[in-house]
Amino acid sequence: MVAQDGDTVEVEEPEEILARVAAIDVAKASGMVCTRVPHPAKPGRRATKVWQVPATTNAIIELAEQLARQGIQRVVVESTSDYWRAWLYLLQARGLVVWLVNARDVKHLPGRPKTDKLDAVWLARLNERGMLRPSFVPPAEIRQLRDYTRLRVDLTQERSRVVQRLEKLLEDALIKLSTVATDIMGVSGRAMLEALVAGQRDPKALAELARGRMRGKRGALVQALTGRFDDHHAELARMLLDHYDALTAQIDRLTARIQQLIAAIPAAQVPTDGAGPTGTGDDGTTGSDTNQQPAQPPLGVLDRLDEVPGIGSKAAQVVIAELGLDMGQFPTPGQLVSWARLSPRTIQSGTKHRAGATGKGNPYLKGVLGEVAAAAAKTDTFLGERYRRLVRRIGKLKALVAIARSILVIIWHLLADPTARFHDLGAGYYTSRIDTDRKTRNHVRQLQALGYTVTLTPAA
Fold first, then answer.
1. How is domain 21-128 classified at the CATH fold level?
2. Would you kindly state where each structural domain of the chain is located, as residue ranges?
3. In the predicted model, what is the mean pLDDT of residues 263-284?
4. What are the backbone angles phi and psi of residue 458, rounded to the nearest 5°?
């Protein structure tokens, strides 16, 4: 306990000092290893040993055996790029307790020399005093799923860049197709591009290839398709279209593989045992309280996530890959929100308080949550109405972050309880909770303050 501003608050006490610890400052080709154990000849003193180990499989396996023989209680590995993976996987396979720690949490004190050896010693000192927090590392099946979903995101972004290159090429050919067609790679736009590559240059003939609602824009298409598309434009456009098709085929292949991987995870399937713990989501938007909501048939995790406004099948797959299915890593929704960097930091200095930036967080998770929040903001649901109420007060960007946070809290409850189902409170939730008498009194006071005499007459 510690007193602050006259109030008694709880503070987190440091853990007991570990007797035998190790730390590894990793690099691409090697790692600097530091062990700290009780000194064999001097009671109460520590023996520190630092040496370099190559980042090869055999060398790391030999190191794991050495650490196990010394009775090392915990090994800390700094998360530098992707170089930590070999150390973490091989040391854990030997049965050692390994923590992966964020490099920003283990920065050396300023004013000290900066070397790999000193960094390893500092990391070991922090480890033995319990002053570090382990990073979230999902199990192997989720890590494998994450590799597929992240590659799909990267290929989707690359496909978008191909479309941008194609649009730039059309601008060079004086073709303004993107000013008329929202998606130049849609059915109509793709047919016109293929005809241009095949040698068709007549704008009227190209405009006749329009389908659906685009046929009503044939006049504008004739003007937009009038340009100077020559043979070199056709050759480059063919390459870009083939690249686009190849990326699309790879993305579809990844999607099919992702569906197979999720189907092979038992925790992602329809629960067959009894009901799990219940809970209510952010502002009561989700839960499985059987006293208030009628019983619903159980669903798999993908179908339950798909019920949340804005979340589609691909977004649900990314959420599972980035968070996993075991919410034991995040005991409360607030801890998950903090880990995802969706809660603003509070910065206090003296009597001044201000909100700090949320931070970077997981780029893949924050990216998909941003897309989901933008989609949910357009719906006639509780989340959509919440966004419209917030945007008037704090602006679009902050309102979207707030909606993303609410959605992440809902996701936590759905993943923490395999039987939980999403329940939308509806767009009229806020209106139904308005205290009409209090609102009437506020309006009357405002009018009286302006010098009016107010007489209320109930409407017929």
1. Nucleotidyltransferase; domain 5 (3.30.420)
2. 21-128, 143-263, 271-346+354-429
3. 64
4. -60, 140
Closest CA to 306 of 295, 294, 319, 324: 319
State the Cα–Cα distance between residues 455 and 460, nearest whole angstrom. 16
Instruction: Confirm if 390 and 399 have CB atoms less than 8 A apart.
Output: yes
pLDDT band at 73 (very low <50, low <70, confident <90, very high): confident
Nearest one of 220, 161, 164 to 188, comparing CA atoms: 220
- For strands 74-78 and 98-101, give the pairing: parallel
Q: Which of 51, 99, 91, 101 is nearest to 67 (CA)?
A: 91
CB 77 within 8 A of CB 98: yes
Q: Is the dihedral of CA 356, 360, 365, 371 positive or negative?
A: positive
> What token pair was written down for 7?
């109030």
DSSP state of 367: H
Res 293: pLDDT: 55
- Quick: pLDDT tens for 138-164: 888 899 999 999 999 999 999 999 999
Q: Is 374 helix (H, G, I), strand (E, B) or coil?
A: helix
Cα(286)–Cα(306) distance, integer angstroms: 13
Q: Tens digits of per-residue pLDDT, 326-359? A: 888 888 999 899 888 888 777 777 777 777 777 7
The distance in angstroms from the start CA to the end CA of the chain is: 62
pTM for this prediction = 0.81
